[in-house]
Amino acid sequence: MEFLVVVKRDCETCQMVGPVLADLKATLPVTLYSQDDPGFPEETGGARDDRGLEESWRRKIEVVPTVIRIEDGIEIERTQGWDRAEWRRITGNNALGTGLPEFRPGCGSRSVEPGMPERLSLQFGGMHLISRKIEVGEMDDPMEVAHDRGWTDGLPVVPPTDLRIARMLSGTTRKSDETIGLIPPNLAECTIEKVAISAIMAGCRPEYMPVVLAVVEAALKPEFSMHGLLATLGFAGPVVIVNGPVTKRIGMNSKGNALGQGNRANASIGRALQLLIRNMGGGIPQEIDRSILGNPGKYTFCFAEDEDDEDWMPLNVSRGSAHGSSTVTLFHGDGVQGCVAWHSRTPEEVSRSLAMALLSVCHPKTCQWSKALLVLCPDHYKIYQQNGWGRPEIQAALWEALKRPGKDLIRGAHGVPEGIEPSRADEIVDKFHEEDGLLIVRAGGKGAGQSAIIGGWPAQRKVEEIKIVSKEVGT
Question: Which of 37, 276, 340, 408 is most buried by a 10 A CB count?
Fold first, then answer.
C-alpha cells in the first residue's frame, strides 16, 4: 500500500495540512506532487514538480489536496480537501490531524481551470485531431488567409486552432470522430470534429455545440432537401427556430430584435450551418448556390421562440415534442416581410390584418405554392391572449381569413397572368397546404403591433417530398 498526494501552495487548506503530510511521510510510503511550487510543503522537504500538470491531468485531480490510496499500482480510493475522519480512515492513522478542524474544503486544481483540461489533453495525448492542419506563415493574417482561400461567407472567421477545437469539443459528450452525415452538395463525410471547426469559425461558444449538432442533423434529413434548397434559384435558406430550456441556458434572444443582430448564440449557430455547407459541401454562391438574389438570412437566420407565457403552446410541442424538451426546427425561408397592424384591437381584426399580409407570400395569386412562418409579436399576441385565444384559435382564424374565391386567383384574372389553374375558378381556395402550411411562433419586443412573415420556398408545394423538420437537442 502506498499513497499519492497532490497539493499546491496557493491553497490555505494545503498549507494547513503540511504538518499532517509530514507525519504521513514519516510513517508511510507517500509521493507528493505540488502544482505550483516544488519547494512546498516545507514540512516534508518539498514535493515532486507538477507545475506542468501532467500528473494532475493523468490522475484526474479536481480538488487539492487529494489523497489517493494505491495498491499494486491500482487506485483503490481517494479523498479530497481536508476531512479528518476520512484521512484517518483512508490512511489507517487514527491520530492524524489532532488539533486541526474536523473539516475544511479544498481548492480547485489548476488542471481544471477554464481551458486547461483541453490544453492538457492536447499536450499529453488524450485528444487526437484528425482534420488536416493548414500552416499559416508567421507574417500572414489567418483571417485573410481564410478569406483568400474561399473559406468565409464574406465576413471574417475565427481561426480554428487545435486548442479552440478541443475547447469546442468539450461542449458535447459525443466522440470527435463520430460521423454525423454527408454534407451536400458534394456529400462530404462530416465528423463531430468538422462541425466543431465550423462552429469555431462562426463564432460559437462550446456550450452551443449540442444545438449546432441538432441543427446540422436536422438539415441532413432527406426530407428537408438541403441540396435542393442550396441549389435553388429562389431566395430561401434554412431558418432555425430553437425551443426549450436550452435557449435560456445558452443565452439566446427571443425578445427585442430577435430576428436581427446583437446576440452571439442566435448569430453564430445559424452561421455555423451555413459555413459547414459552404466549406465541406461546396455550396458556393454563383456556383452550386444558384440563387438569383438570395437573402441576408443566408449569412445566418436563427432565433429562439418566446415561451415565457405558460398558456402558449410552443412550436416544438405543437409539432409533437414533449413539454420541456429542447428542439430545433428548420424551415426553408425567405427574408422578413413586416406586417404593421397598429389599429387592430380585436382577435378577429388582428387575424384579418395578418392574413392580408400573408396572402402576398410567393405571390398574391398563388395558392398552396409555398409555406409561411408567422412570427407573432407581443402586442399582437396580447390581444389574442386577453380574449382567451391560444394557438388553435389563432390558427383557425387565420386559416379562415386566408380563403379566397378561385375566380379572383386564376391565371389572367385582374390582368395578371400569374395564378392558379382556370379549372379552379368556382372553388374557395386555401392559401397554404393544410399540413404545416403555416407555422406560428412568438418572439420580439413590446411597443407596437409589428409581426413578421417569413415566406417559404416554392418547392414546399411538393408536400410529400419537402418537409419542415425538427430535431431534439442532445448533449
Answer: 276
Considering just the CA atoms, what is the radius of gyration of the chain in Å?
30
pLDDT for the residue numbered 129? 87
Count of residues for the chain? 475
Cell numbers of 1, please?
A: 500500500
* Sheet of 66-71, strands arranged across: 48-49, 30-34, 2-7, 66-71, 74-80
pLDDT in tens, 242-272: 999 999 999 999 999 999 999 999 999 999 9
Three cell numbers, residue 87: 484521512
C-beta of residue 469 within 8 angstroms of C-beta of residue 218: yes
Residues 6+ apart with CB under 8 A from 198: 212, 272, 273, 275, 276, 279, 280
* pLDDT, mean of residues 183-197: 95
Mean pLDDT of the chain: 95
Distance separating alpha carbons of residues 243 and 199, to the nearest angstrom = 20
Cβ within 8 Å of residue 403, ≥6 positions away: 428, 429, 430, 431
Nearest CA to 213 out of 227, 194, 230 is that of 194
Closest Cα partner for 23 from 71, 94, 80, 81? 94
Which DSSP string do the residues of 297-352 spell out, in sequence order? GGT--EEE-----TTS--HHHHTTPPTT--EEEEEEEEEEEEEE--S--SHHHHHH
Beta bridge partners of 49: 34
Three-point CA angle 126, 129, 133, nearest 5°: 140
Domains along the chain with CATH numbers: 2-111 (3.40.30.10), 329-475 (no CATH)
User: pLDDT digit string (tens) for 17-64?
Assistant: 999 999 999 999 999 999 999 999 999 999 999 999 999 999 999 999
Helix 162-169 × helix 116-123 angle, to 10° = 120
Cell numbers found for residue 425 = 375558378
Per-residue pLDDT tens for 424-436?
Answer: 999 999 999 987 8
Single-letter residue type at 434:
E
